[in-house]
Design goal:
Layout: E1 2-4, H1 9-13, H2 27-33, E2 40-43, E3 45-46, E4 56-58, H3 61-65, E5 71-73, E6 77-80, H4 89-101, E7 109-110, E8 116-118, H5 120-126, H6 134-173, H7 177-183, H8 192-195, E9 202-205, E10 208-211, E11 215-218, H9 219-222, E12 223-227, E13 244-248, E14 251-256, E15 265-269, E16 277-280, E17 285-286, E18 290-295, H10 301-309, H11 327-331, E19 334-337, H12 340-380
Helix pairs in contact: 6-12
Length: about 400
């Protein structure tokens, strides 16, 4: 069986089972442990300083359809199976999301040892779920789910666009396809004025064979590198008080009132998590466990990003108790620098792709802010949706 852990919630919510491990479960218990469509998983142990236990995951049918073997949850999680004659599972899921966002779930967390635990029995016995009429439940779930689905669609589209840009980078700057084609007298499949910018010879360097005339520089030569800062205050969800994403080495982790940077930057982990690279083009606040990179050369932003992703971060780890990357080590990392003209044309070739990526990311941020603003109003009854109820046509199998 595939076994979903708390650390897998975010990936599975996006539809990816790639990191979900496979375990052998005894046949006599596997049937009762197998997840079914519309089950709700709740994390009951683990968490972290900025991410308490009590997170939830809705088991959408499309998640189960992606696996060829049954799926269950790890021992650090429980699954809830909603009585469909009493409540809509998606609505209950969003209500639990609401409780988590306002800190109510954290009240059921205890930590006597190093691992935080969620008091599920106390939670189940004392938390009441307000149940408006079924049509209203489904309308609420439909609206919030539709926003989530659009965000996920934008993410998948950006992954496709990203792959296109990365393929061109690899062809030009890793495999040196245009150079090799010219060396062998073959067509480069590029316009003549671009093909002529590439040399027709490879030479030896400390990085191995590189195109003649290209230089070996360091990351410090081609980018300004600095550390993020610890914010004075942070909030777990976006609101009118705080709508700027606070970024850590694993990605966005909270929200703050004001940005630290309001220009495009690349972020990578400095402490705790090494190796992730984030391309950020909207105002953000990099935390003190990140390093910020800003290109010095014009038209080299995405070239720098792809080069940074090639760095062997494990070899730069100086930490003993936890991973650590220093500014000095990152600045000294050797990188290949092509001619400015080639960088300019590379930027032109992928600009339409990156512009669409940026547009999708901005739309997703706006949709997420709208979803987070609607969630408490819908759950509290401040915003009523009887007039929208007929739009929700999603059916659930009663389990």
């Amino acid at each position: 069986m595939r076994v979903i852990r708390g650390t897998d919630f975010e990936d599975v919510n996006r539809g990816s089972l790639a990191k979900v491990p496979t375990r052998y479960i005894r046949p006599e218990v596997s049937a009762r442990k197998t997840l079914q469509p519309w089950d709700i998983l709740i994390e009951t142990a683990g968490g972290s300083k900025n991410r308490p236990t009590g997170r939830t995951l809705l088991v959408h049918p499309r998640i189960l359809d992606r696996s060829t073997i049954p799926i269950t949850c790890a021992s650090f999680a429980r699954f809830l199976r909603i009585h469909c004659d009493r409540a809509d599972p998606s609505y209950v899921y969003w209500f639990l999301q609401y409780l988590y966002s306002i800190g109510e779930m954290e009240k059921h967390q205890v930590q006597h040892t190093g691992v935080a635990r969620f008091q599920f029995t106390d939670f189940a016995a004392n938390v009441e779920v307000p149940l408006p009429p079924f049509l209203q439940q489904r309308a609420i779930a439909h609206i919030l789910g539709t926003l989530d689905d659009k965000i996920e669609l934008n993410r998948r589209m950006n992954e496709t666009l990203e792959a296109m840009a990365r393929a061109l980078f690899k062809s030009w700057f890793v495999d040196f396809d245009p150079v090799r084609a010219r060396m062998e007298g073959r067509d480069t499949d590029l316009p003549r004025h671009i093909a002529d910018l590439f040399p027709d010879r490879l030479v030896e360097s400390e990085l191995g064979e590189i195109p003649e005339g290209w230089e070996v520089k360091t990351l410090g030569d081609i980018a300004k590198i600095s550390s993020g800062k610890r914010p004075k205050i942070r909030y777990p969800i976006a609101s009118s008080k705080a709508s700027v994403p606070l970024w850590g080495g694993n990605g966005p982790m909270a929200f703050v009132p004001e940005p630290l940077v309001d220009y495009p930057v690349l972020l990578t982990g400095r402490v705790g998590t090494l190796g992730s690279v984030f391309r950020i083009t909207s105002p953000c606040y990099p935390s003190d466990n990140t390093l910020i990179l800003r290109p010095i050369l014009q038209n080299s932003f995405d070239y720098l990003r792809f080069r940074l992703e090639m760095v062997d971060f494990d070899s730069l780890n100086r930490g003993s108790t936890q991973p650590l990357l220093t500014q000095g080590d990152l600045k000294a990392e050797p990188v290949l620098q092509p001619s400015k003209r080639i960088l300019e044309y590379f930027n032109r070739c992928i600009s339409s792709v990156t512009d669409r990526m940026d547009s999708g990311e901005k739309e997703s941020l706006a949709l997420a802010a709208l979803r987070d603003a609607l969630l408490p109003r819908l759950m509290s009854g401040e915003l009523r949706l009887e007039e929208f109820a007929h739009h929700s046509t999603e059916k659930h199998a009663c389990l």
